[in-house]
Design goal:
Layout: E1 7-10, E2 16-20, E3 26-33, E4 36-42, E5 47-52, E6 58-63, E7 68-74, E8 80-86, E9 98-100, E10 105-107, E11 112-114, E12 119-120, H1 187-191, E13 202-209, E14 219-224, E15 230-234, H2 240-244, E16 249-255, E17 262-270, H3 272-287, E18 291-292, H4 299-309, H5 320-334
Antiparallel strand pairs: 1-2, 2-3, 3-4, 4-5, 5-6, 6-7, 7-8, 9-10, 10-11, 11-12, 13-14, 13-17, 14-15, 15-16, 16-18
Helix pairs in contact: 3-4
C-alpha cells in the first residue's frame, strides 16, 4: 500500500527529498546519484533501492538485502504492461515522474501526462507568447501541442513537461550521438571507428556489471589485458544514513564478484607504456585506497582515473551506465578507440 502524503519537500532542481503527512510525520526520504533517484527510506527506517532503465523508468525495486519487492514491464508510452511483484508500492514510475494512483496521470511539472493516451492533458505553453510553443518547424511532429516527445518515447524523455530530452534528460543529444553536438558527419565514422594500429596492442576494458554487493546503480570494473578485473567500493556495506548523506567511508579495490553479469563494456587500445600507466594507477589505488563516496570518489571516478592515466579522454559522470555511454560517445566523436 502506498501512503498518502500531504507535504512534499523538494530541492532547487525539483527533486523530491521528503514526503510527510499532515502532522509532519516523515513518510519517505529519497536520495539521488546526480539526477537519478536511487533509493528511499520510509518512516520506519526500511531502505529500498530503485533500478531504472535508460529513460529513468522504475523497473525493479529491492530492499536493503537485495530482495525484489517491485518488478514491472512498461508499454512504450508509460503504462505498466505487467506488474510481476509489488510488495513495496511506490508512485514514481514512467521516466521517474510521480503517478497519481487515483487519476492515473503523471506529474511532469509543467503539465500532467496520461500514459494510456500517450498524450498530455493540456497543450504546451511558454512563458512568452509563441505561435507554437517549443515547436521545431522542421519537425511536423512537434506541432502537436499535446504530443509526448514528438511521438518517440523509446528514445526520448521529457524532463519538465515542455521539451523532449535525450535519455540523460538534459534536453540534448549526448556528445557524439547521431545529431548530437560534435557528432561525426558520416554513418561509418559514427558507428565504426577504425581498428587500432600495430602499436596499440594492449587493452583496457571498462565494464558496467550488475550490482556488485547489491549496488542499485550497478558497478564499474577495469581490466588491463587479461589481468585481474577490479572495481572500487566500500569496505563494508553502507548504512541508509551514510548513503543519504553521501558520507565518505573506508574504500577498497576489490575483484569482480562471482555471479555478477556484464551489462556493457568499452575497450581502449593502448601501447605497452600506456598499459603500464593504467596498471600503475590501479596498483596505486589498491595500495592506498582512501575513502569511498557514493557520489564523488566512487567506482565511476576510479574508472575515469584509470582511463585518463592512459592519456585518453574520459567524462565526469556519476552513474556507471553514463560512463560507458559517454566513453563510447567520445570514441565515436574522436573516431578512434586508441589512447593517444
Amino acid at each position: 500500500m502506498v501512503e498518502t502524503c500531504d507535504l512534499v519537500e523538494s530541492d532547487t532542481a525539483g527533486r523530491v527529498l521528503e514526503e510527510t503527512d499532515q502532522n509532519g510525520n516523515v513518510l519517505n526520504d529519497y536520495f539521488y546519484l546526480g539526477d537519478e533517484r536511487m533509493g528511499r527510506v520510509n518512516g520506519q527506517g526500511a531502505l529500498y533501492f530503485y533500478y531504472n532503465d535508460q529513460l529513468s523508468t522504475t523497473r525493479i525495486m529491492t530492499d536493503r538485502n537485495g530482495n525484489v519487492c517491485y518488478d514491472a514491464d512498461y508499454f512504450p508510452w508509460g503504462d505498466e504492461q505487467h506488474v510481476y511483484l509489488n510488495t513495496c508500492g511506490q508512485n514514481y514510475k514512467f521516466t521517474g515522474k510521480e503517478r497519481d494512483p487515483d487519476m492515473d496521470i503523471d506529474d511532469f511539472g509543467a503539465r500532467f501526462y496520461k500514459a494510456g493516451m500517450g498524450r498530455f492533458y493540456s497543450p504546451d505553453w511558454s512563458a512568452t507568447v509563441e505561435p507554437v510553443p517549443y515547436a521545431k518547424l522542421e519537425n511536423p511532429q512537434s506541432l502537436n501541442l499535446y504530443a509526448y516527445v514528438t511521438d518517440n518515447p523509446l528514445r526520448f524523455s521529457d524532463p519538465d513537461g515542455h521539451v523532449e530530452g535525450a535519455p540523460d534528460g538534459n534536453g540534448e543529444e549526448p556528445p557524439g550521438s547521431p545529431g548530437g553536438a560534435g557528432s561525426p558527419q558520416t554513418g561509418a565514422q559514427n558507428h565504426n571507428p577504425p581498428p587500432p594500429d600495430a602499436n596499440h596492442t594492449h587493452t583496457l576494458t571498462v565494464r558496467e556489471v550488475s550490482g556488485q554487493q547489491g549496488n542499485p546503480a550497478n558497478h564499474i570494473t577495469v581490466q588491463v589485458d587479461n589481468g585481474k578485473e577490479v572495481g572500487f567500493g566500500p569496505v563494508q556495506d553502507m548504512t541508509a544514513k551514510q548513503i543519504i548523506e553521501n558520507t565518505p567511508v573506508p574504500g577498497q579495490v576489490e575483484p569482480r564478484a562471482a555471479g555478477v553479469t556484464t551489462v556493457d563494456a568499452v575497450t581502449v587500445y593502448m601501447t605497452k607504456d600506456e598499459a603500464a600507466q593504467a596498471q600503475g594507477t590501479i596498483d596505486a589505488r589498491t595500495t592506498n585506497p582512501g575513502d569511498y563516496q557514493r557520489s564523488g570518489r566512487s567506482c565511476v571516478d576510479f574508472g575515469e582515473d584509470v582511463v585518463r592515466s592512459t592519456g585518453a579522454r574520459a567524462p565526469s559522470d556519476t552513474l556507471p551506465s553514463h560512463l560507458i555511454r559517454d566513453l563510447r560517445a567520445i570514441q565515436i566523436q574522436d573516431n578512434t578507440t586508441q589512447a593517444p
